[in-house]
Amino acid sequence: MTATTNQIPAMNYAKFAGLLYLLIAISGGFSIGYMPSVIIAPGDAATTAQNLLNNQGLFRLGILGDIVVLLLEIVLTAILYRLFKPVNQTIAMIAAFSRLAMSIVMGINLLNYLIPFQLLNGADNLGAFEIDQLQSLALVFLDAHQYGVYIWGLFFGLHLIALGYLVFKSGYFPKVLGLLMGIGSFGYSLESIGEITLINNEIFSILVIALLVIATVGELSFTFWLLIKGLNIEAWDKE
Question: Domain count of the chain?
């Protein structure tokens, strides 16, 4: 391989992937973490409806944040596949397909935000419903959105264990990053399974939280390693 045709693009891909990771983390932190905490009052349809109506701009920004995330995810998926295909093409495809599946679920899940917005903003064809019925329906869809998050979390858990393996085996990055992501991936999978199947166990919850912390440390470390260091060009050049 020559430095001009392969090494420089590979380094650029790696740093661009780091930038995408950072943008996704910021947008996702807002749309998945902050916005719902302001809007949704668990089990209280009337308060949730009032919160949404009082913070429509914030709600719209949350939807925009989700759109940004799912579009960036598609680009990031392609770049990660390009970077890790030389390590193991089959595992790289598993990582790519599972992340794309996650993005598809995220896109469909946007409906569970758009429908409550329509219900509470007095669409013309909803005159037969009482206000409390509309509020209850809105909360049902908002709750369904959270379950959608748990569903795409299953695909992300699969992606992360595959990516962790690729990082560990590649030699492009410190092995500890792959190890952290691989171990932490079970946090997403177990959280999703637990919430979907309604497992309510304190030890299980503690385990999930611990694994998610490990995953977060691994993902953030990987993000900043990509941004600052890129990848090990000598290891890339051997592929």
Answer: 1
> From residue 92, how far is each of 57, 77, 112, 162, 219 by CA, in Å?
39, 10, 31, 7, 17
Question: Would you call 201 helix, strand, or coil by DSSP?
Answer: coil
Q: What is the mean pLDDT of residues 226-232?
A: 87
The CB-side HSE value for 135 (13 A sphere, CA atoms) comes to: 18
Closest of 189, 228, 236, 221 to residue 15, by C-alpha: 228
SS3 1: coil
Please check whether residue 231 is in contact with residue 10, taking contact to mean a CB–CB distance below 8 angstroms. Answer: yes
User: Which of the four pLDDT bands, split at 50, 70 and 90, describes residue 121?
Assistant: confident
pLDDT at 43 over 70: yes
pLDDT(50) > 90: yes
Q: Which two tokens stand for residue 129?
A: 């419903």
Domain of residue 141 covers 3-238
Q: Which two tokens mark 110?
A: 């946007």
Task: Determine contact, residues 56/18, Cβ cutoff 8 Å.
Answer: no
At CB < 8 A and 24+ separation, what contacts does 60-64 make?
A: 61/30, 61/31, 61/35, 62/30, 62/31, 62/34, 62/35, 62/36, 62/113, 63/31, 63/110, 63/113, 63/114, 64/31
